[in-house]
C-alpha cells in the first residue's frame, strides 16, 4: 500500500506506538537543523515526558540515527540518517531535476524561491534560492516543515487534493487555529483553498510572520497528485497589485514546467 502522499494507515502492530514516537522525534531533531534540539523542547513538541524522550533518543543514538553534542547537550541528526537518505534520494529526491527551475524562479522574480515536498500532513522545504532583491524573508529554508495549509506551498498542495482528503485532513488537525492563529480555522482555510483553486496559486498574506508574504503553486506527479510545490517569499510591499498577479503567472509557469519534467522522468 502506497502512503507516500498521505498519512500512514493506523494498524495494530506490536511496538507500533514506540516506532511512531521515535519517528516523530527523528523528524523534530532533523527539523532543528545544525543548531540541534534540547530534550525539553522535544518533549513539549512530541507531547511526551522527558524521561520517555531521553530513553528513545538514547536508543536512536545507539543505532546512529541521532547524535548528542556533549558540550551543549543538544540532539542532532546522526550519520546513519545521512547514509539512509543517500540511498532513498535516488528514488524520491527531485532536487536535481528541479534545481535550475528554482534558480530561474528566483532570477525572474528577484525574490527567494523554494521547492517543497509533501510528507504526510506536512511540507518540507528541499531547496532555497535567493533572488537579487536585498530585503529577504527567512521564514523558510531547507529542512523547515509546516503543516499543510499554513505556508503558501502547503496551501497550494492542500487545495488540489481530492475534497475527501481535505475534509479528512481538517478533521485530523483541529489544533491548527490554536497553534497558527484564527486565520487557520477550518472555515477560513476552506475559503483560502477555494480562492487558490480559482487563481491556480496560493497566497499567504503575512499569516506566519507579519509583513512576510508567500506565493506558491502545486507541482504534480504524472498521475496528477500534488506532491510538491514551488513558492516565493518576500516583504509585503513587493506582493501588491499587478505585481502579485504577475508573480502568480511566473510561479505557475515554472510549476507547470517542473510537473512536465517530472512526468517525463517517471
From TrEMBL:
It comes from the Bacteria. InterPro entries: GAF-like_dom_sf, HTH_MetabolicPath_Reg, Tscrpt_reg_IclR_C, Tscrpt_reg_IclR_N, WH-like_DNA-bd_sf, WH_DNA-bd_sf. PANTHER family: HELIX-TURN-HELIX TRANSCRIPTIONAL REGULATOR, ICLR FAMILY, TRANSCRIPTIONAL REGULATORY PROTEIN. Keywords: DNA-binding, Transcription, Transcription regulation. GO terms for molecular function: DNA binding; DNA-binding transcription factor activity. Residues 16-79 form the HTH iclR-type domain. GO terms for biological process: negative regulation of DNA-templated transcription. Residues 80-264 form the IclR-ED domain. This is DNA-binding IclR family transcriptional regulator.
Amino acid at each position: 500500500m502506497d502512503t507516500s502522499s498521505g498519512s500512514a494507515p493506523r494498524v495494530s502492530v506490536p511496538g507500533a506506538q514506540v516506532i511512531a514516537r521515535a519517528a516523530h522525534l527523528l523528524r523534530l531533531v532533523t527539523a532543528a537543523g545544525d543548531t540541534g534540539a534540547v530534550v525539553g523542547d522535544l518533549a513539549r513538541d512530541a507531547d511526551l515526558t522527558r524521561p520517555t524522550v531521553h530513553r528513545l533518543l538514547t536508543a536512536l543514538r545507539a543505532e546512529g540515527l541521532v547524535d548528542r553534542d556533549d558540550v551543549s547537550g543538544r540532539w542532532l541528526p546522526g550519520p546513519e540518517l545521512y547514509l539512509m537518505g543517500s540511498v532513498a534520494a535516488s528514488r524520491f529526491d527531485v532536487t536535481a531535476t528541479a534545481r535550475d527551475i528554482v534558480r530561474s524562479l528566483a532570477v525572474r522574480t528577484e525574490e527567494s524561491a523554494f521547492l517543497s515536498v509533501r510528507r504526510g500532513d506536512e511540507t518540507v522545504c528541499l531547496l532555497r534560492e535567493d533572488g537579487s532583491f536585498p530585503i529577504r524573508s527567512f521564514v523558510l529554508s531547507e529542512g523547515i516543515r509546516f503543516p499543510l495549509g499554513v505556508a503558501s506551498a502547503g496551501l497550494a498542495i492542500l487545495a488540489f487534493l481530492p475534497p475527501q482528503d481535505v475534509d479528512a485532513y481538517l478533521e485530523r488537525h483541529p489544533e491548527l487555529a490554536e497553534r497558527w492563529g484564527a486565520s487557520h480555522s477550518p472555515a477560513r482555510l476552506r475559503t483560502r483553498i477555494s480562492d487558490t483553486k480559482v487563481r491556480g496559486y496560493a497566497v499567504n498574506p503575512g499569516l506566519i510572520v507579519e509583513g512576510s508574504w508567500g506565493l506558491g503553486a502545486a507541482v504534480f506527479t504524472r498521475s496528477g497528485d500534488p506532491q510538491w510545490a514551488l513558492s516565493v517569499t518576500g516583504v509585503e510591499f513587493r506582493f501588491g497589485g499587478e505585481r502579485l498577479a504577475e508573480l502568480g503567472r511566473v510561479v505557475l509557469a515554472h510549476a507547470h514546467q517542473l510537473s512536465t519534467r517530472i512526468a517525463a522522468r517517471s
